[in-house]
Amino acid sequence: MRIATYNINGIRARFETVTAWLGEKAPDVALLQEIKIVDEAFPREEIERLGYRVETHGQKSFNGVAILSRLPLDDVVRGLPGDESDEQARWIEGTVIGERRAVRVCGLYLPNGNPAPGPKYDYKLGWMARMRARAEALVASEEPVVLAGDYNVIPEARDVRNPDNWREDALFLPATRAAFRGLENLGLYDAIRLRTQAAGVYSFWDFQRGAWGRDNGIRIDHHLLSPQAADLLRDAWIEKEARGGAKPSDHVPVWIDLDA
DNA sequence: ATGACTAATTCGATTAGA
Questions:
Q1: CA–C1' span, A214 to B5, in Å?
Q2: Looking at the 3D structure of chain A, how many domains does it have?
Q3: Tens digit of pLDDT for each residue in A31-63?
Q4: Which of A51, A54, A79, A117 has its CA 20 to 30 A from that of A26?
Q5: Nearest residue to B18, CA vs C1'?
Q6: Strand B lies under 7 A from the Cβ of residue A214
């Protein structure tokens, strides 16, 4: 079972890029972030025609997440628990029924948090605390669980080309990285780090300042795996070449293969 | 020293992204 995560930066702007990618790569599951559209306006039929079940949790203009699955998808839940007043669409989960195993899959778009300090950064850290509580419950289930998406977290200095440029940034502040380690300390594994310890493995290159041409990237799109999911991991990688393709997002797809 | 790019909203300039 291949599970990809992809921040598409707008389904309207990225429709042809995304449908071409689905047609070519055909991941079993695609977790999308920043669909930037309400559920009723999402191009559901066009993507169903490519063989996918479509579950969205959208909102107008910003944010919005989706699960696309070629496999049966049950028990879909929208929204991150813990704050009834939070209206931002950043979390969706469902159970994907593989040939051998069922996998609980969470698609997430973690808040950016800039500028820091400030209310946006407070929202980010509060959101991460709520995510930790949900992740703790999922780990306790002792089932294969995958939490994947745009974390807006640079975990370590080896995950950014120029660490000194990011010292004051919400994506790389010590409190941000500590909260990410807090997730790992529940017993979750960063899938790419089960595959390689190399520096310079990035998933995002800014549209500005010629970041792509200079390989001035950061790794912020992650799959965290429960122990039961990590036991099923066959491979993980980042589709870097997508950043140089036609009408690219600023993020590229990242995928894992599970024996499930 | 500063802006640089892209998308959404809605048709121009603002907000947001990271």
A1: 15
A2: 1
A3: 999 999 999 999 999 999 999 999 999 999 999
A4: A79
A5: A112
A6: no
pTM of the entire predicted model: 0.97
Domain boundaries, position A151: 2-258
Distance in angstroms: CA A218, C1' B17 = 15
| Distance from residue A191's CA to nucleotide B7's C1', rounded to whole Å | 30
pLDDT digits (tens, 9 = 90+) for A84-139: 999 999 999 999 999 999 999 999 999 999 999 999 999 999 999 999 999 999 99
CATH of the domain at A168: 3.60.10.10
Structure tokens belonging to residue A244: 């140089």
Give yes or no for CB of A176 within 7 Å of strand B: no
Q: Quick one: pLDDT band at residue A253, thresholds 50, 70, 90? A: very high
pLDDT of residue A173: 97
